[in-house]
Structures are given as C-alpha cells and as structure tokens.
Amino acid sequence: MGTSSVWMLLIGSYGLLGGWLVWPLAAVLVTLQASLQHEVLHGHPTRSPAINEALVYCSLNLFIPYRRFKSLHLRHHNNDRLTDPYDDPESFYLAWADWQGLPRVIRLILTLNNTLLGRLLMGPAVSTIGFAGSEFRSMLRGDRAVLKAWAHHLAGIVPVLIFVVYVGGMPLWIYIFCVAYPALSLLMLRTFAEHRAHKDAEARSIVVENSPLFALLFLNNNLHVVHHAHPRAPWYELPAMYRERRAAWQRRNKGYVFASYFDLARRYLFKVKEPVVHPIKYREEIVGSATAKMSSTGKAAH
C-alpha cells in the first residue's frame, strides 16, 4: 500500500513536477511493486492469499496479470526443471527444433536479447509479445483460469488508467513507454542472468553481491540461489541466511556469483551471455536424433 500511495502522489504531481522527474521515479515504484507481487505470491505478508492479493490487486505495470504471474512463477520453482525450454515457463532458452523453425530476423532479435543491453532495450517487448501470444492461444482454447486471471487484471488496472489520465493528466502512451516499459527493463536487469543452463540443478541460480540499491529494489532476489532453496522465506531474511553460509552457498551454485550488477554489465553489456538454444537440451536432442538415425539404419557408433 505504501508503494501505491507514493505512486499516486507522484503521478498526481505530474503537472507540477514534470515528466523528467516523475517518469524515472514512477518506473522505480512500478518495479518495486512487481517485487512486492513476487513476495505476495510466495505467501507474504499475511497467511491469507486473498488479503495478500488485495494488497497488490491494482497492478501499476499494465502488462502481466498477477494471477498468471503467480501460477507460472510457482511452476518455475520446480528446481529440477529450471531453465527447461518447455517445463520452465520463465526460461529464456529455446529447444533446438523450435530455434530451427524461426525466421532469421527473429533469431537475430533473440540473440541480441541475450546481451544485457539488448535485454534492457528490447527485452520487455520480446517477453510481452511472446507472453501475450501464449495467453491468447490459451484463451482461444477456453482456458477458464487464464480468462479469469485476465478479467481480474483488467478490473485492477482500470482505476490505474483512470488515475494516470484523469488525475495525473498523463497521456496513456506516455505512461506505457516512459514508466511501464522502463519498469520492465529494470526487472530485466534482475532476470537477465538470474538462471543459467547447468546439469546440476543447484548451480542454476545466481548470486549478485554488493548491490544494496538493487537488492532493495528487487527485495533481495539478487541472492537468488537462497530464494530458490527457501522460497517461503521472506525477503528480509535472505541476506542473513546468505551471510551465515556464504561459502557453502557459493559451492552450492558452483561459483555462479557476480560482485555486483555493474560487474554483470561489464561482462555482458554488449556480449551474448549464453546461446538462445538450451546448450544441454541441444546436446540431448542431437544425441537422441543421431541414436534414432543409427537405429533406423542398423549402424553402430564407433
């Protein structure tokens, strides 16, 4: 509620303060609310899911329904399937067969999206378009849970839109491109390297140290290996849990550690972090295809 109240005060002062001050501050608040929604879906701050949802019901970012976020994110917490192109709904990887079927221009976009700069600039559009397409197909199939989630989302964002346009006097397109989109870009900084493809499930989640401002904005999800090990732990307990067993956590995730988000940017701002094709699944598919081919021709491997 505090985040929404400050957001209302800021948007309501748009005519007085001007866009160059309001836009970035509002984007930060929208990002913070998304982090709070993440806390809520994991069962905080109360034991009542209904009360928790009510606290974040009016989504300041217009693109992702809370109930869909909750459903998909809880599936994402199956650590054994983490990063799987099919089983992890938050995976940025593709299977080799799907990659092969894409036009070259889409392959180029997805490759650039695997640099940090590309993820910050085009990542929100790439993710939103892909997500919307998937949701639309589910609704066409008559998925009532998806339809209900979107109905709740629309009910929640109507007051947001009314406040932005009629109280704040901000054109809707300005809010979308100068507040909501940059907020998603900030979230993309967190999710860019949050997981990696690795045979060991424990080694797939990141630790980013020494980032107090981003740690607050992301509610300590920079310590992501701790969160995945203890998803029910509230955000404010994660730093102490990490400090108590810092060396053990880093052994657990096989050293998937960055000194800060600036360190992450230094390494991958212009460099592709990983291929779009899931590197482990790719090898499995190639080996499986070769095995099937040899079986069909009666040839043995040497």
How does this model look, in words?
The chain is mainly alpha-helical. The protein has one domain (2-296). It has helices at 2-12, 14-17, 19-41, 49-55, 66-76, 96-100, 104-112, 116-140, 144-167, 172-191, 212-217, 224-229, 238-244, 246-252, 261-268, 279-297, and strands spanning 207-208, 257-258. The protein has a two-stranded parallel ribbon. Helix 1 (2-12) runs antiparallel to helix 3 (19-41), helix 3 packs across helix 10 and helix 8 (116-140) crosses helix 10 (172-191). It is globular and about 55 Å long.
State the end-to-end distance.
65 Å
State the domain count: 1
Beta strand count: 2
Lateral strand order in the biggest sheet: 1-2
Shape descriptor = globular
Low-pLDDT stretches? 287-302
Main sheet summary: 2 strands, parallel
List keywords for this structure.
single chain, mainly alpha, two-stranded parallel sheet, 16 helices, 302 residues
Topology:
Blueprint: H1 2-12, H2 14-17, H3 19-41, H4 49-55, H5 66-76, H6 96-100, H7 104-112, H8 116-140, H9 144-167, H10 172-191, E1 207-208, H11 212-217, H12 224-229, H13 238-244, H14 246-252, E2 257-258, H15 261-268, H16 279-297
Parallel strand pairs: 1-2
Helix pairs in contact: 1-3, 3-10, 8-10
